[in-house]
Amino acid sequence: MRYMVSPQKTKASTNLLPGMERSASNNVWLRLMGIPAVAVMLVFLSNDLSPENVYSKIIKYIIYVALYWEIHRVIFIYVQNRYPYLQDTRKRVYIQIIVFALVILVVSFFLALINPYFPSGGAGSQDTFLMEYQSFVVKSLLLLGLITVIYECIYFFGLYEKSMLEAERLKKENLMSQFELLKNQISPHFLFNSLNVLMTLVPENPDLSVMHIQKLSNVYRYVLSQHEKNVINLTTELQFLKDYIFLYQMRFGENLQIKYNLPDQWDHIQVIPLTLQMLVENALKHNIVSKRKPLTITISTIAGFIMVTNNLQRKTSGVESTNIGLQNIMNRYMLLTSKLVEVHVTKTHFSVMLPLIFDHDNL
Q1: What are 98-104's contacts with CB under 8 Å, separation 24+?
Q2: Which terminus has fewer CB within 10 Å in the chain: N or C?
Q3: Contact 25/17 with Cβ under 8 angstroms?
Q4: Is residue 205 domain-shared with residue 325, that is, in the same domain?
Q5: Tens digit of pLDDT for each residue in 277-305?
Q6: How much is the pTM?
Q7: Same domain for 154 and 19
C-alpha cells in the first residue's frame, strides 16, 4: 500500500498568488472604489473640462477605466498564476509588457473609433481620429501603469504576509520538534539504557566505553546546537545519525542492522535537522528487535527523496503510535518545499520518503 500524507494546506501554501485571489483579483470593493476614483482623476486631468460635458466625460472615462481594469485583471491573474514565484519575475514582467502593449494598441483603436459617438467626442475626421488614437495610447499607458502598481503592491504585500505566516508556522513546528526530541532522547529511559550499557562496558572494555561516552556527548551536543536550524547539510546529519545509531547498536548488537545506499557526493544536498533520527527512533520504538527477529533499517536515496525503510515487525503491546512525530516532519517539509513526504506501507516493510532539499532551492 502506498499513500501520501499531507497536512491541510492553506491558500498561502498553494501555487496561486498569496492573498491575491482574496484581496485584489476578486475584491469587488477594490474595483467599485478604484474605477470611479481613477475615472474622476482622469477627467480633472483632461484639458477640455467644462460644465456642459463633465458628466458625459465621467461616464466615458468610467467605461474606459473599467474596460482596462478588467482586461488588466484577467491578464494579471493568468500571468501571475502561471509564473507565481519570485525567480519568475523577469519572465512575468516581459510577458505582461508584450501583452499589455498589444492590448493598448488594439483597445485604443476601438476607443478612438467609437469616441465621436459620445456627446463630448470629436467630429470624427481622420486627423481627429489619429489625435484621439494617440491620446488614448498615452492615457492607456498611464492607466495601465497605475493599475499595475496597485496590483503589484498588493501582490508583494501578499508575499510578505505569506513569508511572515510561514516563518511563524516554521517556528511553531521547530518548537514541537524540540519537544518531541526532548521526550525521545533526554528521557529517563534513554539515559538509563545508555548508562546501563556504559556500566557493563567500563570493566570489560575501557576503550569502547570511552568511545560510547564520546558518541553520547556528540549526540547531545548536536541536538542542542542544530535543532533551531531549518536545514542542514546531509553529511553533517548522517554523521550525527551514525553516532546516535552506535549507541543503540551497543545495546542491541547484531540484532540491529543499518544499511546505507547513498551517493558518493551529497555536499549539495540538505535535509531538515533531526528528521532522520526521528524516523530511526520510531522504527526502534514500534518494532521488535531481537535475535530471532533482527530489525534492519535501510537509508537510501531515490528520485529526489531520501528513504528510511525498516522491516515491519510491530510490537503487539506497550507502545501506541500517536503519529505526532511523523506529522511534525510532514508539516516542516511542507513549509520548505513543494514536495510532500511520502509514506509506503506493505505487509513486510514500512518506508518514509523525505524530499531532498538542494542548495539552489528557495527556502
Answers
A1: 99/75, 100/72, 100/75, 100/144, 103/71, 103/75, 104/137, 104/140, 104/141, 104/144
A2: N
A3: yes
A4: yes
A5: 889 988 988 899 999 999 999 999 888 89
A6: 0.52
A7: yes
